[in-house]
Specification:
This protein folds into two domains: 1-84, no CATH class; 90-215. The chain is globular and about 55 Å long. The longest helix has 24 residues, at 2-25. By secondary structure, the protein is mostly helical. Helix 1 packs parallel to helix 4 (91-110), helix 4 (91-110) packs antiparallel against helix 5 (116-126) and helix 5 runs parallel beside helix 7 (158-170). The two termini are 17 Å apart. Helix content is 65%, strand content 0%.
Length: 215
């Protein structure tokens, strides 16, 4: 079963990478078929197998020899590893992680991501909570985005705050603090003077670390 879950996870990871690529290039998720972004040649079925195809192709396009980002391999392997932790009690956290994993891939490329990710993740983490939690979570979510839209020199994006909020609602404030602290440490290692940094990827890497560490 772990092997099956790992295979499914690699497929999900491959899909998230493809969706993020389509978001980056502003193209439809349905058309055209999977192709090389450089030479535009459609990919054969054997070039679309998660992990295996990357290793077989040695990280390069079969047609034009352009290097394929190693991010694809890393995301596929990590998604496979994470899905092996699937149980009835981890379904919602894994759905949350998948949504924000997609947002992290988009954020890493464009420093933006689809706004519906924030709303859908909020619904996921509150779906079995009492009305008071829905009210408090909704008010906090609205307040964060309202203040951020009027804060002209904000040092952090509203998406980063949305992620931290939904994480705190999913787990608790203590775990959210751990997540944020580790993400800030990772970001400081990468930060360059004067460069705006995509923070959601660091938050997601931190969450994956804590998730696998605790399990």
């Amino acid at each position: 079963m772990l092997i099956i879950l790992f295979i499914y996870g690699t497929c999900i990871g491959s899909g998230l990478v493809a969706l993020a690529d389509r978001y980056t290039t502003h193209t439809s998720i349905f058309y055209p078929a999977s192709h090389c972004d450089t030479c535009q040649t459609p990919l054969a079925y054997w070039q679309l197998v998660p992990i295996f195809s990357y290793l077989l192709l040695r990280g390069r396009c079969h047609y034009c020899q352009t290097a394929i980002p190693a991010t694809s391999l890393l995301v596929e392997f990590t998604a496979g590893l994470v899905l092996t932790t699937l149980t009835p009690t981890t379904i919602i956290p894994l759905l949350w992680l998948g949504l924000w994993g997609y947002a992290a891939l988009c954020d890493a490329r464009t420093q933006t991501f689809p706004g519906w990710v924030s709303y859908l993740s909020l619904i996921f983490v509150l779906y079995d909570h009492p009305f008071s939690s829905w009210l408090a979570g909704g008010l906090l979510f609205t307040l964060i985005n309202w203040i951020w839209s009027r804060w002209f020199s904000s040092a952090i994006g509203n998406g980063d705050l949305d992620l931290i909020l939904t994480y705190a609602l999913l787990h608790d404030i203590e775990h959210a603090a751990e997540l944020t602290l580790l993400a800030c440490s990772l970001a400081l290692l990468q930060q360059q003077s004067g460069q705006r940094l995509a923070f959601i990827p660091h938050l997601i890497v931190s969450e994956i670390f804590w998730w696998l560490w605790r399990l």
